[in-house]
Amino acid sequence: MAGTVNDMLDRIQRGVAERDRILDSQWLFTANAAHELRTPLITARTAIDVTLDGHPSRAELLAMAGDVRGAVEHMQRVLNGLLLLARSQAGLAAREPVDLAAVAAAALDAAGARAAVAGIAVRSEFQPTSVTGDPILLERMIGNLVDNAIRYNRPGGHMAVATGPADGRAVLRISNTGRHISPGEAEKLLEPFLHGQGTRIRTEGLGLGLSIVRAVTLAHQGRITVDARTGGGLDITVDFPQNPVTKDARSQDTDSLQETALP
């Protein structure tokens, strides 16, 4: 009897601890989201107050309008990111075959100009590998990974993108050079609005990219690992349950995945 009661109390204690962890996480997310929206609102309000304090010229009014527009666009990006994060956490609205190779190739094409301007060398190996899921969410997930690899790279750096089957799973791997990240920091990059040792992100990014990647991965019963590279940058691997390819996949003749690994 005593053992049964103790087991019940242990389960209650674990449940309370898990509830507190979830509530703390939700509070932190809400606070950070509110801060992300408050900052551009303050920017817009300040631009309006300063400009209208007197007799502004046409040039000053146009400058104010530009500042307000930039703040509104920032808020729109934050809200779009939050809505996409909520959608991916709610589950899949569509289920159809999606070839990761085709999606990754399209994402690289779309980001090619940005990578070229930054002097980032891109290596790729696309082997057709299909999953069942929401094509819009999967496209956004891979787009976020490519964007992250370019945005946080270094000038003249490298990135490598590869897809293919492995052990019955459909695998996507993206590696990039960049600043040094400690192993303990890497996993925290999956949290929304966080960077490194739990500090807020203050960059041109919104801090939602990798948290959306994780949410989309989990919605598709996938797994994600984020590893800090010894020389700086990240090595991110996402894998899903694999399905046979049911539509044409875009492939590219390149070296093997091992040879696309960054130096």
Automatic annotation (TrEMBL):
Domain Histidine kinase: 32-244
CDD domains registered for this protein in UniProt: HisKA (cd00082)
Top-level division of the source organism's lineage: Bacteria
Biased composition (Polar residues): 254-263
Keyword Kinase annotated: yes
Keywords: Kinase, Membrane, Phosphoprotein, Transferase, Transmembrane, Transmembrane helix, Two-component regulatory system
A GO molecular-function annotation: phosphorelay sensor kinase activity
Pfam family, one: HisKA
Catalytic activity line of the entry: ATP + protein L-histidine = ADP + protein N-phospho-L-histidine
Keyword Ion transport attached: no
Entry's EC annotation: 2.7.13.3
Cellular location(s): Cell membrane
Stored InterPro entries: HATPase_C_sf, HATPase_dom, His_kinase_dom, HisK_dim/P_dom, HisK_dim/P_sf, Sig_transdc_His_kin-like_C, TCS_sensor_his_kinase
Region ranges (Disordered): 239-263
Gene Ontology CC annotations of this record: plasma membrane
Protein name in UniProt: histidine kinase
